[in-house]
Each structure stands twice: as structure tokens, then as C-alpha cells.
Predict the structure.
Amino acid sequence: MNSVPKIGLGVTMLIAAFVISALGALIVQAPSLNVSMIWEDPYYQHVTKFSFYQAFLSTVLSVGFAIPVAHSLSRREFYGKSMLLKLFASTLVLPVLVGVFGLLAIYGNSGVIANWLHSVDSELPFPSMA
């Protein structure tokens, strides 16, 4: 019988504590919040149903195309197969790159915050890389 590693259990407990503390802070800061009133609102019901419907369709379409493509890529050898696999793998990297460039646009030496600090005759609290 396999046992759960202690580090995994510790990380799980840490994540659970973080989530519970966030929900607790929300409940403490908004004691008059009536959750049942929100769920009974037709607008929120419509938005929630549409979100689940859209997620379901996206999953079905993605898996519906991915399984035949993965099956054919595993069975066949053709020119450009490695390039096609690299193109498919780029979807794992692109969101990270978009996030990094977004952070640079805000916090970089010529970003929004740096430009605002320069307009009020202030400097960045950290040295420039250039």
C-alpha cells in the first residue's frame, strides 16, 4: 500500500489553510453578504450557466480534435513532424511570456510605474539594469 509523502501532505495543508483563510477574511469583511440572494438572481444564474456551457464545449472540441491528432502523430512519420510538435508545445510557453511582458510593461524601467515616478520627480527604489 502506497502512503502519501509527508511533504505532499504538508503542502496540501498549507494550500488548504491559505484558501480557508481567504474565505474567512471575505466572510469577516462582508458579514451582511447574502449568498443565497446572489444565487437566486437570474443574471448570475445565466452567467454561471453560460460559463459552464462554454467550458464544456471548449473541452469537448479540444479533446475531440486532440485525440485523433495525437493518435496520428504517434503512428506516422512525416517531414516536419518535429516542427509541428514544437508548435503544439509553444502553447505551454506563450502564456508565461505574455505574463512576463505584462510585468515588464508595468514594473520595468520604462514601464507605467517608472514613468509615473519620473513625472513626480522620483526614482525607482531599485537600480536600473541598463
